[in-house]
Amino acid sequence: MFLQPATLHTETLATILIVDDDATNVVVLQSVLETAGYHLVVAHNGREALDMLGCATPDLILLDLLMPELDGFEVCRRVKASPQWGDIPIIVLTGLDDVDDYTRAIDCGADDFMTKPFTFEVLLARVRGYLRARRAMIELRQSEDRYRRLVELSPDAILVHCDGRIVFVNKAGMGLLGATAPDDVLGIALSQIMALRQPARTTARLVQADSTPGPLEEQFVRLDGSIVDVEVATMPIPYQDKPAWLVVARDVTERIRVREELRLAKEAAEAANYAKSQFLANMSHELRTPLNAIIGYSEMLQEEAEDNEQEAFVGDLHKIHTAGKQLLGLINDVLDLAKIEAGKMPVYLETFQVTGLLNDIVSTVEPLLAKRANTLEVHVGDSVGTMHSDVTKVRQSLLNLLSNAGKFTQQGMITLTVGQETVEHQPWCIFRVCDTGIGMTPEQIGQLFQPFTQADASTTRRYGGTGLGLTITRRFCQMLGGDISVASALGAGATFTMRLPATAPVVAAPPPEAPRPQVLAPLAVAAGPGSAQPTVLVIDDDPTTRDLLARILPKEGFQVATATRGWEGVQMARALRPIAITLDVEMPEMDGWSVLATLQADPHLATTPVIMLTITDKPSPGLALGVAAYLTKPIDTARLVTLLRPYQRGPSAIPPRSASLGLYATPA
Predict the structure, then answer these.
(1) 543-552 and 284-307 helices cross at what angle (nearest 10)?
(2) Left if phi > 0, otherwise alpha if psi is -120 to 50, otherwise beta: which for 604?
């Protein structure tokens, strides 16, 4: 009778080999065990039992001791000495009850010893126990074999470090270290092959003092002395009843090389982008100065043509003036983005009323929306109060959203909804601009906030623009601690939601040290003949600005005196005592801030209103105390005249001094 392999046997299908020369005992055991569901084979003596084992392996052996030719003791000894059969449990069933027989059987390798007669329930219980143990052992052996294969086939180097030396290495580990056989590596201390980049951290892991998860990038020293970059992960494991470390290493030389190339490429790209942004940011003066002349002279010539009823020139001059302002708007957008990318866009924080800001924005944007027959509705929640943020950036962002909505909507409705909500105990202002315009597809929304990008080429051709407005708006929102999102469907309009913290977390950059007032020698200037016109002193190194103001302001009832340098302007101010001063910020030798500090240090000039003319951005309020207003070049002459008019009418008409941004004007 042939036996079946036992590796897949369940407990009830297990094969049991009965070795007994007593036919009666065999019949009784067969009856009991077959009833319990076991598969049985029988050998009538020891030699027959060994022959059967050579054909197949049973799951358990029930062995009698007293048999002819080859007794049970010798059978037990041979079975347990065999690598193939040594793990088969053997239960001795014998009539011998002497202690020496028990001891001898156990010494020969028997797993259990039962003396006849015995209770069958006890026998069945012991059979079940040993079969379960054998099944668990087989499963453990199979599991160990699977993991051994995984370790050997792993492309990563795997080592076991125990008692200060390497006690196991797989094939990949030998290849990583340049070994041809395991013995080349076994017995070496791990410290001998590690060129530590992070010695403290790595050593801490190896002595089980650091439980930080995740791999470390280190370097291994190969047996030939060369260095290889590796990523190392470690974990504690038991090894032969001792604490040990499992070390898994992967060659990352190529990854580090690619990463370094990417880092250098990224740094080069960032440097190039930064250089570009710095160049554009520094080009602000050079780009805007000629536009100042174009816009200013075209506006002045247009007014003169209208006064002289030269209608043939008015239209052309209006086109020049309009084109100049459009070009200025495009340049401003490009320069704003460049300044943001170059880190030159400062944030000026102040507290302001949201409703006052909205009134200003509505009055500005309504004429633009009316050109396309759009209607504007504004809804402001009762909880909306003040914000502590950069009012200029908030204003520009809302103007960008509203003008964008008006551009893509014809004879539709544009709604501005403003509310407040609390997020993590902090108040946030929510500005939502909805329109009923052309809408966008998901693909168009995906590229919406990319610089110089509009929905598609046809949109650019039809509606114009640089595609920078929304990009700048998002950058402004992020600078102020918030962000902007959009929801839209093609043909169903769009909704832009701008979320800003009521108190911006951005800390304004500290202003540069205020310039010290310069002490100038008094200039003896003879008082000229009296004039009915009040004098405005223009201090500006730009001849175009001086010429424009010298030709425009007298028509409005002002006398103009001009100075080309800061120190010259201070001396003329002391001599002429003008009703107001327009002061350029960027001048050689003595800039506008130094002039302002000197004027404020003079008790006779400290109260003279100063209107700052800047071709760049609004300066820090910390340097602007006592400034009546700011105007950005190209100068809005109508706005300038409006600011000067109260001073022309006398002290009673002069408004209170303010450094508020409400007096800050930029060209439309």
Answers:
(1) 20
(2) alpha
Query: How many Å apart are CA 502 and CA 391, to the nearest integer?
Result: 11
Question: Phi first, then psi: what are they for 37, rounded to 5°?
Answer: 95, 15
Structural contact between residues 445 and 495, judged by C-beta atoms closer than 8 angstroms: no
Phi/psi-derived region of residue 110, left when phi > 0, alpha when psi is between -120 and 50, beta in every other case: beta
d(CA 86, CA 109): 9
What is each CA distance from 534 to 553, 561, 610, 635, in whole angstroms?
A: 11, 10, 15, 21
Total Cβ atoms within 10 A of residue 97: 10
DSSP-assigned beta bridge partners for residue 238: 243
pLDDT of residue 40: 93
Inter-helix orientation angle 72-81/46-55, to 10°: 20
- Sorted by sequence, the CB contacts under 8 Å of residue 157 that are 6+ apart come out as 169, 170, 172, 173, 175, 176, 177, 230, 247, 248, 249, 250, 251
- How is residue 237 written in tokens? 């494991």
Residue pair 420/397 in contact (Cβ under 8 Å)? The answer is no
Instruction: Say if CB 663 and CB 643 are below 8 A apart.
Output: yes
Those residues with Cβ within 8 angstroms of residue 599's Cβ, 6 or more apart along the chain or in another chain: 570, 573, 581, 605, 606, 608, 610
Whole-angstrom Cα distance, residue 490 to residue 470? Answer: 18
Q: How far apart are CA 163 and CA 366, in angstroms?
A: 82
What span, in angstroms and rounded, lies between the C-alpha atoms of 166 and 147? 19
Q: What single DSSP character describes residue 506? A: P
Integer Cα distance of 508 and 288 in angstroms: 26
Burial (Cβ within 10 Å: 0-12, 13-18, ≥19) of residue 371: exposed
For the four alpha carbons of 499, 504, 509 and 512, in that order, the dihedral sign comes to: positive
Of 398, 400, 368, which is closest to residue 380 (Cα–Cα)?
Answer: 398
Blockwise average pLDDT, block size 10, the chain, 668 residues: 38 84 92 92 92 90 90 94 92 90 93 90 93 90 86 89 90 90 89 68 51 72 89 87 89 91 90 74 67 77 80 80 73 69 75 88 82 87 88 87 86 90 88 88 76 53 59 86 88 88 69 45 39 84 87 89 91 91 86 87 88 68 63 82 82 46 39
User: Per the omega criterion (within 30 degrees of 0), is the bond before 522 cis?
Assistant: no
Q: What distance in Å separates the CA atoms of residue 206 and residue 560, rounded to the nearest whole number?
A: 83
364-367 CB contacts, 8 Å cutoff, 24+ apart: 364/399, 365/399, 365/402, 365/403, 365/406
Structure tokens at 162: 């125990």
Residues 581, 585, 591, 593, CA torsion sign: positive
In the Cβ-directed half-sphere of 12, how many Cα atoms lie within 13 Å? Answer: 3
> Which residues, at least 6 apart from 567, have a Cβ–Cβ distance to it below 8 Å?
518, 520, 589, 590
Cβ within 8 Å of residue 618, ≥6 positions away: 348, 392, 630, 632, 661, 664
